[in-house]
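Page 47, continued from p. 46.
Same chain as before, 104 aa.
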Amino acid sequence: MAALLDEVMGWAPSVIKRRFCVAAEIIIRYLKPLPIGQAVTVRGEMTADRGRLWEAQGEITDDSGTVYARGAGKYHPLSEAQTQAVMDYLAVDGRRVTLDEALG
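Result:
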């Protein structure tokens, strides 16, 4: 669950700001055990832009509204050059992708 929340919370500001980021701190509150095979929805949103740190929160729920975990995180934004360096390694189905393709 921590990995799911880290990903969704990290992607939320990356999509908005059009740059990648790395986790500086994440806090996870586990509310219920997640049964194996349970279909869930993982949501994340950017909550603050503090310049050198972006903040986000996330949640894992099922279709009935049961909340399994909540998270909050602080993410360090990469520079445009660092983001482009990451892009140089990304490929989908063997083809390089653009930043817009990667970030949606």
